């Protein structure tokens, strides 16, 4: 059963108390993201690298704040490996339709720098489905 969208979406955008569970998790993610960005760039044959925690931070943050409210016994970390999952939504393992319609996550997604012309980021308006 999906959790209904909060009536005031702007409340989810506020960072809130960094001492709360979601705030601590988001801060750890930002620290890890900074460490990854500090690594040397990929060489050939890699030509494009998408970093959804940068360009899809708003829906990602809303997802974390909505669904990480209490401690969990298991934590899954990862990114849906296809171009129509987290690369579009910022939500780990997040196929676009399910993120938008079932989880009711919203938020603007900007274009990543160096976007591949055959893998455009359309955010939550993307109509393609992730098959992986």
Automatic annotation (TrEMBL):
InterPro entries per record: SMUG1 (IPR039134), Uracil-DNA_glycosylase-like_sf (IPR036895)
Keyword annotations of the record: DNA damage, DNA repair, DNA-binding, Hydrolase
Database matches in PANTHER family: SINGLE-STRAND SELECTIVE MONOFUNCTIONAL URACIL DNA GLYCOSYLASE
Compositionally skewed regions (Acidic residues) per UniProt: 1-20
Gene designation: Smug1
Provenance organism: Caloenas nicobarica (Nicobar pigeon)
Sequence segments annotated as region (Disordered): 1-21
GO molecular function: DNA binding; oxidized pyrimidine nucleobase lesion DNA N-glycosylase activity; single-strand selective uracil DNA N-glycosylase activity
Name by which UniProt lists this protein: SMUG1 glycosylase
This protein's record includes keyword Thylakoid: no
Biological process annotations from GO: base-excision repair
């Amino acid at each position: 059963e999906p959790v209904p969208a909060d009536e005031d979406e702007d409340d989810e955008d506020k960072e809130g108390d960094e001492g709360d569970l979601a705030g601590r998790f988001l801060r750890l993610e930002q620290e890890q993201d900074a460490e990854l960005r500090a690594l040397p760039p990929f060489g050939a044959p890699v030509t494009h690298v998408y970093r959804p925690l940068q360009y899809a931070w708003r829906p990602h943050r809303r997802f974390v704040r909505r669904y990480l409210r209490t401690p969990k016994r298991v934590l899954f970390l990862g990114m849906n490996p296809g171009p129509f999952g987290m690369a579009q939504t910022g939500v780990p393992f997040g196929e676009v339709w399910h993120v938008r319609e079932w989880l009711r996550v919203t938020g603007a997604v900007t274009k990543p720098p160096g976007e591949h012309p055959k893998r455009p980021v359309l955010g939550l308006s993307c109509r393609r489905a992730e098959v992986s």
